[in-house]
Amino acid sequence: MIHFICAIMVDSAQSVASRVLPWQDRSDAEVVAAVLNGDQGAFNWLVRRYWKSMYRVVWGIVRDEMAAQEVVQDVWITIHRELKNFRLESSLKNWMFKILTHRAFRILKRESRSVAFSQLATREENEGMSPEEQFTEKGRWKKPVTGFVNVDPQAQVIHRQGLALLGQFIEELPAIQRAVVTMRDIEGLSSDEVSGLLDITPANQRVLLHRARTTLRQRLLATESEVG
Amino acid sequence: MLTCQDIDHLVVDILDKKLSTASKIGVWFHLLMCPNCRIHVKNTQVLVKSLEQLQQESDPPEALQNIFDKH
Fold this sequence. Notes:
The complex is a heterodimer.
Chain A: H1 2-20, H2 28-36, H3 40-62, H4 65-82, H5 92-110, H6 117-124, E1 151-152, E2 157-158, H7 160-171, H8 175-186, H9 191-198, H10 202-227
Antiparallel strand pairs in A: 1-2
Chain B: H1 4-16, H2 21-33, H3 35-52, H4 62-70
Helix pairs in contact in B: 1-3, 2-3
């Protein structure tokens, strides 16, 4: 009996805690349940949290500002309408990005662009800073590698000013590299998820990510050396 | 024996923890000998952790907000 009462007390304490937790700390199931119960705050949080990444990814696919805005708007309406059918078999993030990329590829197909997306992705493997330029013929570094200076020693992340620059440098990446780095490194989707969502090969995804990270790392280091 | 360029090629797999056992040994041995590559891998780790910090909430553009006022 005492065990039973304790279990009820723990249960209700957890339920109170989950009600006061910020949205980002709640599980997918809790956020979905809140939206389905008509909690506008939960849905507004989803939009505020994901619209920017979604826009970056869509832009990488459709490469047209108006079309990208149209897709993002439509996708949020679809998410709101279809959330009752979300089954928690994948993460909510993956489910939302699947709707997004599916819609973006439909736009591409509708407009029957002459250059296929996979061709563009392959072309972008050679855009931006080339990792190869950094090495001698024998595969050694041409210059000594310097570490980031403006790093928070505890968190091991660059300082706030560097983060602002990083956000700016991402916007300047080639479009598909930007989509890949947004999904992989900002949103934390896996390599398999990103390859599947963008319909590119895992090898292609890997090279695009490597290129994007090389450019971002080099630009941040260059900024630090200019300031320093 | 892996070169610095090989390590750079493998840095995505190193951070994804997707190396085969043979590659792991090669990478470990190279990193033991090469301070430049140790810094390079560390820089990439810091970059990836920093990119995670860009997960942030922000107001959507007006066009997007209008859609939700209607729903």
